[in-house]
Design goal:
Elements lengths: L38 E2 L6 H11 L2 H8 L3 H4 L14 H15 L4 E2 L2 H6 L4 H5 L4 H15 L8 H6 L1 E9 L5 E8 L2 E4 L6 H9 L3 E3 L5 E3 L4 E3 L1 E9 L3 E7 L1 E4 L4 E4 L9 E3 L15 E13 L2 E9 L12 H26 L1 H4 L2 H11 L4 E3 H12 L3 H4 L1 H4 L2 H6 L5 E4 L4 E4 L17 H10 L9 E5 L2 E5 L2 H4 L6 E10 L18 H25 L1 E8 L3 E4 L2 E4 L7 E7 L4 H11 L8 E8 L2 E4 L11 E5 L3 E2 L2 E2 L8 E9 L1 H4 L15 E9 L4 H8 L5 E5 L10 E6 L19 E5 L9 E4 L2 E5 L6 E6 L9 H6 L3 E5 L6 H11 L11 E6 L5 E4 L16 E6 L7 E8 L9 E6 L4 H11 L8 E4 L19 E5 L8 E11 L25 E12 L4 H8 L3 H4 L9 E7 L2 E5 L17 E6 L10 E8 L11 E6 ...
Parallel strand pairs: 1-2, 5-10, 22-28, 31-35, 38-42, 43-46, 47-51, 52-56
Antiparallel strand pairs: 3-4, 3-9, 6-9, 7-8, 10-21, 11-12, 13-14, 14-15, 14-21, 15-19, 16-18, 17-18, 19-20, 22-25, 23-24, 26-27, 26-28, 29-30, 31-32, 33-34, 33-35, 34-37, 36-37, 38-39, 40-41, 40-42, 43-44, 45-46, 47-48, 49-50, 49-51, 52-53, 54-55, 54-56
Helix pairs in contact: 10-17, 29-30
GO molecular function, one term: cysteine-type deubiquitinase activity
Protein name: USP domain-containing protein
Organism: Danionella cerebrum
Length: 1236
């Protein structure tokens, strides 16, 4: 229903609009499509209203009656706000909406003004309503609105019918009747096959009062046997039938939708359902012209409507040309079948065809129906031979024959009575024959006709209109998308010739004038929008104002004299554009070519074609060959690439004669930007840049990126000289190094294989060290802030950081002042946080410190090579400045590290644990926040973890097997009560684990091992722990795959996990099932203690596979075992059979059933009982505890049933309260003024 909730006024054009068009609000609605019919916009939830409005529109008699009411009777909409006038707004708005739908050249119309006249607010327009209810309320509102006008009886004349309920006394024949009026017939869907059977049950079947249900007759004045029936007395011109698709289940206390098959004919005859009279057959004949369809469930959905175009206002086109051809050929074949059927019917009695004989028998009956038990006797009376001798061998029993011809016979009263399906007779049919032959029935009710001279069907789905065939109606017999309301019209209602194909037929003049003004306004808007949307602005670049440089075109001056903006209609041809430019450039001489141009980093580049010209495109005007006597290459393959070319500087090479290039930044290299065609080879580039023997290198790492001020360049091999720049994947901004062999002797170059390393000159090799005063030092912090001490220390990549610190202390004159104070070098991040101290035994390059950056001289010890510097804080959300620092040996365990941190933080207790925190920005990825040194640890106690972390409750499983009787030396075995899905044993809470959802199961087990409850337990490794996911405090499933992430194992925040200590390592596969197997004690209703059994269901998950695995374990043959699964909730056992049924070779072999699917659903922890048939012939798996449990369940069920009879109302209310909460349904209403 809400499909078009955000529907706009029109569909936007794909073309680029000019600056004069401001968005979609200025775009006019598009004209009607090729089907020539108009849809209706959905206001959010008004699809039910749209479907009913379209049905009324395509009811020509209703439409024309409404149009016949003029302003003198209804008033004028312009006066509706005047208090002294009474304007009948609802019919006026319907008139205006109908005229819009018929004549305005627009794809969709709006019902906003109509719903405003109803008095509806946004609640009604957005809410879910029933179209059957709307049909009655709208008709009532129209009747009230038309009181006192010539149309006051409009609804009554077109839709009103009457039926009569009669009770006939079987003793005296007295008839008591009661007449009822109806606007629509509501028929049942549940339990019937179609519309005709439902009508038969309503108007042909009799309800007999007898036995204890007698009727008091007013004539006899006593209780007598009587029959109750109903008949149609007056038939309306238009019959509306509402299908009871929605029902209520009193057992489940919920509504549901009937989605079963429900057949309805395209045309049918109502004579069998009416009182006997002398009306002609045309008064009983109806044809279908509208089907309102509901898609969805009983609490929501969507409506649309299939409509038969009576006046042929639309232009029907077959959905598929090929399919259309097939339908036409089939219609010719069926036409021939109709003729054959007629001839067969005429000679049927002579040939004694059983179908014809039965049709003749039923047609001669006055009620047109016969009891099935009596049909055989009537057939023998007619042909002289019983059915069993003449037809049974070929056709089977008479019942089977009737069921095999549902297109002809209708079985009613639970199959005890048979009647003919009533079909409208054709003109060529014999007058005495009501039902045509079966072939004609199929043609009339199913196939229809797709001839252009016949009527066609359309699907009007809110704004969408599509053509359909009659066969599409069959698809609405059943399913979630099925027919909901049926509209029939009398076949005697004929349309005048002047109405066919004329949408303006009988439309009042004032409405025609309104429509004409609206169409003129729309046409003007479309013309203006079409002109503005197709008017594009292009930039013309004139060749005389450009020159060729660096592989691209550049303007000769900074002034924009060579760029001319031109507005042009995109629908015109290129020749028209060239002519317009000729007229603008009167001084142009020679040929003129227009080429699409684009600005690239190297300049302006030309392409070969004019495809893709749009608003803002650039066109280059030239002769097509050269620009200022320079030949210009065009096309994508010659698109220039702007490269950065580096060379040794003049100072670095020691040139004093003015050759070379000046070094502007002292880096030893100079660069220039050069543009080359993408299709040029690397050899051509080298020839343009320098001598052929020079080395051409591509940048591998940027200057100083790897620490130590060095950058790497890869030398192009000789074979690359024949490849183009595009093939080498060179792009704009890439850097190349051009160096001659003799220049490699310079100090800044070093060659290793095909890699040239460029080392930064000495004046660029420095590190700035800044003294960062801290509390505890001799110099006060405030004095340090007043004059910060900085020193630029000369350094290289190979220099040790210890030497850097020593030089900095000397330069800053801090040797004496910091003689007894430990100090270290630290870096600072962008947020101002000091990073961990650097390892001073490393070089600048090995420590990853870039030259020309800053280091900070801070107080504190220097970590050794075997030590780690860590941050830690107390609390859940640490901030910079509140973190504590610690240096520990990397060989310490987590527990020992935790103790040292607690000492520094002056904390006591053992309920603390460590975890890492994500201290980076939330938008940063884990890859960007990856840190190997200086991790932050946080001490957390009883607080929820941040996003991305899980807080898992951990419980410890304690096996009580040793305490069970019979566990040692063959003592008394345990009963089944202890071998339920809850394993024998208990689990107690031992703490919480906070861990990332990206952590593996092995990481989780490792962290569990650090909990205080497991510190004294002997758990050698995480593989000795088994992790169960608890489901309702019971052991659910085992977490498998030690390297699988917790997120993939579906362990969520707040989950409960129970760990179990094992005696050996375990790594279960995905297909392994852990079962508890218990062997039955021979001759007793008891079992030996259960044992764990690991079954690989991946090899064979069928019962045969389980039997084979158990037989191998016990050393027995599979045939000597009997296996069952225990159901602890029901205190029952489900046998697992090893029997394989014999399958015929002709039949397809069935796939072996899996014990992990229905009905066994075998899972981890299930208890499997095993009987050894060699020792125990008792095949009953039940124990005494099972029998006690079953008796207890029966007692509880009896108490519930007794309580249900006493407090059924409370039970229903509880069920209703347990269902899904829904918004209260509001009754639909339409506000109408007083016109009496």
């Amino acid at each position: 229903m809400f499909g078009d909730l955000f529907e706009e006024d029109g569909v936007g054009l794909s073309s680029t609009t000019s600056s004069g068009v401001k968005g979609k609000e200025s775009e006019p609605p598009p004209p009607r499509g090729k089907l020539k019919l108009c849809g209706i916009k959905n206001q959010g939830g008004t699809c039910y209203l749209n479907s009913l409005i379209q049905t009324l529109l395509f009811t020509p008699e209703f439409r024309e009656e409404l149009f016949s009411l003029g302003p003198d009777e209804l008033g004028c909409l312009a006066d509706k706000d005047k208090p002294e006038t009474k304007v009948r707004v609802i019919p006026l708005e319907l008139q205006r909406l109908f005229s819009h739908l018929l004549l305005v050249d627009e794809q969709t119309a709006s019902t906003t003004e109509l719903t405003d006249s109803f008095g509806w607010t946004n609640n009604e327009e957005m809410g879910q309503q029933d179209v059957q209810e709307l049909n009655r309320i709208l008709f009532s509102a129209l009747e009230s609105s038309l009181v006192g006008t010539s149309g006051s009886s409009l609804i009554h004349r077109l839709y009103h019918g009457t039926l009569v309920n009669q009770i006939t006394c079987k003793q005296c024949g007295n008839v008591s009747e009661r007449q009822e009026d109806f606007l629509d017939l509501t028929v049942s869907v549940s339990g019937v096959s179609g519309l005709e059977e439902a009508l038969w049950n309503m108007f042909v079947e009799e309800e007999v009062f007898e036995g204890n249900n007698l009727y008091r007759c007013s004539g006899c004045q006593q209780l007598v046997r009587a029959a109750k029936s109903a008949k149609l007395r007056k038939l309306p011109p238009f019959l509306t039938i509402s299908l009871l698709r929605f029902n209520f289940d009193f057992n489940k206390c919920e509504r549901y939708k009937e989605t079963g098959s429900y057949v309805f004919p395209l045309s049918f005859n109502l004579r069998p359902f009416c009182e006997k009279n002398n009306w002609p057959d045309s008064e009983y004949s109806y044809e279908l012209f509208s089907v309102i369809i509901h898609k969805g469930g009983c609490y929501g959905g969507h409506y649309h409507v299939y409509i038969k175009d009576i006046d042929r206002l639309g232009h029907w086109e077959a959905p598929d040309e090929e399919k259309n051809g097939k339908v036409k050929s089939k219609s010719h074949r069926r036409q021939s079948k109709v003729e054959e059927g007629k001839s067969k019917h005429e000679n049927s009695l002579e040939n004694e065809d059983p179908l014809s004989v039965l049709i003749s028998i039923l047609a001669q009956e006055e009620s047109k129906s016969v009891l099935v038990d009596q049909l055989g006797q009537k057939l023998m009376n007619k042909i002289g031979v019983p059915w069993s001798k003449k037809y049974k061998k070929q056709y089977g029993t008479i019942n089977k024959f009737l069921q095999s011809h549902p297109e002809t016979f209708l079985l009613v009263s639970n199959g005890t009575c048979v009647t003919l399906k009533v079909i409208l007779p054709t003109k060529t049919s014999p007058p005495e024959l009501i039902n045509p032959p079966p072939e004609s029935i199929e043609l009339e009710t199913v196939t229809g006709c797709d001839d252009p001279d016949e009527y066609h069907w359309f699907d009007l789905n809110d704004s969408t209109v599509s053509a359909i065939t009659v066969r599409d109606i069959e698809k609405q017999f059943q399913g979630k998308e099925s027919a909901y309301m049926l509209f029939y019209r009398k076949t005697a209602l004929k349309r005048p010739p002047e109405a066919i194909g004329n949408p303006g037929y009988k439309v009042p003049l004032h409405l025609l004038e309104m429509v004409q003004r609206e169409n003129e306004r729309l046409q003007q808007r479309r013309t203006e929008f079409d002109s503005s949307s197709n008017n594009i602005e292009v930039q013309l670049h004139l060749a005389p104002h450009y020159h060729w440089l660096n592989g691209a075109l550049h303007p000769t001056s900074l002034a924009e004299d060579g760029i001319i903006p031109v507005n042009f209609d995109r629908r015109k041809t290129v020749g028209d554009l060239r002519l317009a430019i000729y007229q603008m450039q009167e001084l142009w001489e020679g040929d003129m070519a227009l080429t699409l141009a684009k600005n690239v980093p190297a300049g302006l580049h030309l392409y070969e074609t004019l495809t893709g010209v749009g608003n803002g495109s650039h066109l280059f005007v030239w002769n097509g060959r050269e620009v200022n006597s320079v030949e210009v290459q065009t096309g994508v393959e010659w698109e220039p690439v702007l490269l950065t070319v580096w060379r040794p500087s003049l100072e670095e090479l020691g040139c004093v004669d003015g050759s070379g290039h000046a070094d502007s930044n002292g880096s030893g290299l100079v660069h220039s930007m050069k543009g080359f065609a993408g299709g040029a080879t690397l050899g051509t580039l080298l020839e343009a840049l320098g001598p052929q023997d020079a080395l051409l290198c591509q940048e591998q790492s940027r200057l100083g990126a790897s620490g130590g001020g060095a950058s790497g360049w890869r030398v192009f091999p000789p074979q690359d000289m024949q490849r183009t720049l595009r093939e080498l994947s060179l792009k704009d901004g890439d850097a190349l190094l051009l160096v001659q062999p003799e220049e490699l002797d310079s100090s800044i170059f070093s060659v290793s294989g095909d890699v040239v390393t460029v080392t930064t000159p000495s004046d660029c090799r420095w590190l700035q060290v800044e003294f960062c005063a801290q509390r505890g030092m001799k110099q006060d912090v405030e004095e340090a802030e007043q004059g910060k001490k900085r020193s630029k220390v000369s350094a290289s990549g190979n220099m040790l950081l210890e030497e850097v610190k020593k030089k900095a202390l000397e330069d800053l004159c801090l040797l004496e002042e910091l003689n007894d104070v430990e100090c270290c070098l630290r870096q600072m991040d962008r947020s101002g946080k000091l990073l961990p101290p650097v390892h001073e035994h490393l070089s600048v390059r090995d420590a990853g410190i870039r030259l020309m950056t800053s280091l900070y001289l801070c107080g504190g010890p220097v970590p050794k090579a075997t030590q780690l510097f860590l941050y830690f804080s107390i609390g859940f959300a640490p901030s910079v400045g509140q973190e504590l620092e610690i240096i520990v040996e990397e060989s310490l365990t987590v527990k020992e590290c935790l103790k040292e941190m607690l000492q520094i933080a002056n904390l006591e207790g053992e309920s603390w644990h460590l975890r890492r925190v994500d201290w980076c920005e939330e938008d940063a990825s884990l890859k960007e926040a990856r840190v190997f040194h200086g991790d932050t640890l946080v001490l957390v106690e009883g607080r929820l973890p941040p996003k991305g972390f899980l807080k898992v409750s951990v419980r410890m499983y304690t096996d009580d097997m040793n305490s069970l009787p019979g566990n040692k030396d063959g003592a008394a075995p345990q009963s089944s009560q202890e071998a339920s899905a809850e394993w024998p044993g208990t689990h107690r809470f031992i703490g919480h684990v906070e861990i990332s959802e990206e952590a593996s199961l092995d990481d989780f087990k490792t962290q569990v091992m650090t909990l205080p409850a497991l510190l004294d337990a002997c758990v050698p490794s995480p593989a000795f722990l088994r992790a169960w996911l608890l489901e309702g405090k019971k052991l659910g499933r085992i977490l498998r795959g030690n390297q699988t992430m917790l997120r993939k194992l579906k362990v969520g925040n707040g989950a409960e996990v129970c760990v179990q200590r094992l005696m050996k390592e375990e790594d279960l596969g995905l297909k392994h099932l852990l079962l508890r197997i218990q062997m039955g004690v021979p001759g007793e209703k008891m079992y030996y203690p259960p044992e764990e059994f690991l079954w690989d269901s991946g090899q064979d998950s069928s019962p045969k596979g389980l039997y084979a695995a158990l037989a191998s374990s016990y050393g027995l043959a599979p045939d000597n075992l009997l296996v069952a699964k225990h159901l602890p909730d029901k205190h029952n056992w489900m046998p697992i059979s090893n029997w394989t049924p014999q399958v015929s070779k002709r039949k397809k072999k069935r796939k072996a059933e899996s014990l992990q699917s229905a009905p066994f659903y075998l899972k981890d922890g299930d208890v499997i009982g095993v009987k050894n048939l060699l020792l125990d012939n008792n095949k009953d798996f039940s124990t005494l505890e099972d029998e006690i449990g079953q008796q207890r369940l029966k007692n509880e069920a009896n108490q519930c049933s007794r309580g249900h009879s006493v407090s059924s109302h409370d039970t229903v209310s509880k069920k209703l309260s347990s269902t899904k909460n829904r918004k209260p349904e509001k009754a639909l209403s339409i506000s109408v003024g007083e016109f009496r």
